[in-house]
């Protein structure tokens, strides 16, 4: 399979930039950051996938130049064909670029430089700007999903700590990814689904699991369970709703399965599970998970859990919270976002109902309800060597706003916090790894280590 054409992986206006820098420019450094001053903790993620997919090894070939020439000429762009052919000759198709970055999974505050890219051959300083489009895109999206997933994890973990006897034992499977069908593309499902797996081990986005195994060493383990959908329930007909549930019990006599139960009346279905089907549920070696999939995302699941507590009974744990028998649980996978998730957890806690009783799922709210401005991501030039002297490059518009960092940047850890400083200005070791150099991937991170860095 041919690689994508790296010449064409950029914005049209980038091709004109080489002549716009001052005469004597030889090196350019640009950095990636999530701008702003909120207290959100950013989970750096996606750099290794980008390097393996687009930068590692020979990524420029003659056919790419031949392909780009007529396309860009018809597009009205002079794309420096001579320079690209010379780059191919000088570096045999490898990119003369260095990338220093925080290791994937690192948790840092907003406003910290997450990665720095520099050219290593003075003749190709324009490459840094050329690669900005693809590199920033490869960082902002998976980093944003990993960050949001971890923020959701904080909400759930807080509820578990308050109401459960085993928070650590449950948290890995408390937020399930249902986002594959809501993603804009296969690659979006891969990157977003993989980013969620930094924080949790439950997913139905198989492309995310495959991506984690492809781009990282180690055991990127993730799991799912048997589950019904509306078609497998409604095909029985409303008059045979009970038979549809009985069929699930027949087909899955042991283990865990989830059953969507709101096709007609979630209250009636919950009653069926807690009365007619109760003995069969309680006799199973496993767990039946009831899934409401419509209605208010806070009121409906709370009502279902309370109804099940009435019919199946409960125990009270050491923290004074009600816990259903292990044979029966609930999952809410519709309409959740940060606000409704917070409200649902609070509603259960206020009723002395343990978060043990429920799991959560997200689809578009997890993988798709984001953009580059969610955490104000940007990649900006901060320094350039011009006439053999490094100068600071920055913007500082009147009225504030999108002020950029300036100078040759490094990120270090000081007092357990990552901060960005001027390169060589402090004695503290850099927190960056040199992850890429001249076509060679320097680090190959283990997914277990990535998860460990992002752990709450």
Can you describe this structure?
The protein has 456 residues and is of the alpha/beta class. The chain folds into 2 domains: 6-143 and 375-454, nicotinate phosphoribosyltransferase; 145-367, TIM Barrel. Helices cover 36% and strands 21% of the residues. The chain has 15 helices and 19 strands. It has helices spanning 47-55, 62-74, 81-91, 127-163, 167-170, 186-196, 206-215, 230-234, 241-251, 266-274, 278-283, 299-312, 338-350, 364-367, 447-454, and strands at 25-34, 41-43, 97-101, 107-109, 113-119, 175-177, 226-227, 254-260, 285-291, 315-316, 322-323, 328-332, 358-362, 377-386, 389-392, 409-414, 417-422, 433-437, 440-441. A 7-stranded antiparallel sheet has the order 15-14-1-5-3-18-19. Strands 6-13-12-9-8-7 form a 6-stranded parallel sheet. Strands 2-4 form a two-stranded antiparallel ribbon. A hairpin with a 2-residue loop joins strand 14 (377-386) and strand 15 (389-392). The longest helix is centred in the N-terminal third of the chain and has 37 residues, at 127-163.
């Amino acid at each position: 399979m041919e690689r994508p054409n790296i010449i064409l992986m950029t914005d049209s206006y980038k091709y004109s930039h080489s002549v716009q820098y001052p005469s004597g420019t030889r090196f350019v450094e640009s950095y990636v950051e999530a701008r702003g001053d909120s207290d959100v903790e950013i989970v750096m993620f996606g750099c290794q996938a980008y390097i393996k997919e687009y930068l590692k090894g020979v990524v420029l070939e003659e056919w790419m130049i031949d392909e780009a020439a007529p396309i860009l000429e018809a597009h009205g762009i002079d794309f420096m064909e001579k320079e690209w052919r010379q780059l191919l000759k000088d570096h045999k198709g490898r990119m003369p670029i260095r990338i220093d970055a925080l290791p994937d999974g690192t948790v840092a505050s907003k406003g910290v430089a997450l990665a720095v890219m520099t050219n290593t051959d003075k003749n190709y300083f324009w490459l840094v700007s050329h690669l900005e489009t693809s590199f920033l895109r490869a960082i902002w999206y998976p980093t944003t999903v990993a960050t949001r997933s971890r923020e959701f994890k904080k909400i759930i973990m807080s509820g578990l700590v308050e109401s459960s006897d085993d928070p650590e034992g449950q948290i890995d499977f408390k937020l399930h990814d249902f986002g594959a069908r809501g993603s804009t593309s296969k690659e979006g499902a891969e990157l977003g689904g993989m980013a969620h797996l930094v924080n949790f081990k439950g997913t139905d986005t198989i492309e995310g699991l495959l991506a984690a195994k492809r781009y990282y060493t180690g055991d990127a383990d993730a799991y799912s369970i048997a589950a019904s959908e509306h078609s497998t329930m409604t095909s029985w007909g409303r008059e045979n709703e009970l038979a549809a549930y009985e069929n699930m019990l027949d087909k899955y006599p042991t283990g865990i399965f989830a059953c969507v139960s709101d096709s007609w009346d979630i209250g009636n279905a919950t009653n069926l599970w807690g009365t007619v089907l109760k003995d069969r549920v309680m006799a199973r070696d496993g767990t039946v998970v009831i899934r409401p999939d419509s209605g208010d995302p806070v009121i409906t699941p709370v009502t279902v859990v309370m109804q099940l507590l009435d019919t199946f009974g409960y125990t009270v744990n050491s923290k004074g919270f009600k816990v259903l028998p292990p044979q029966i649980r609930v999952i809410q996978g519709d309409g959740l976002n940060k606000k409704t998730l917070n409200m649902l957890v609070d509603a259960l806690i206020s009723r002395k109902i343990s978060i043990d009783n429920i799991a959560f799922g997200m689809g578009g709210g997890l993988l798709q309800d984001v953009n580059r401005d969610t955490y104000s991501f940007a990649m900006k030039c901060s320094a350039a060597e011009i006439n053999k002297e490094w100068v600071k490059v920055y913007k500082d518009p009147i009225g504030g706003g999108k002020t950029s960092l300036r100078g040759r940047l490094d990120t270090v850890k000081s007092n357990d916090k990552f901060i960005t400083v001027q390169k060589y200005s402090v004695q503290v070791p850099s927190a960056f790894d040199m992850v890429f150099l001249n076509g060679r991937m320097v680090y190959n991170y283990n997914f277990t280590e990535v998860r460990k860095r992002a752990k709450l």
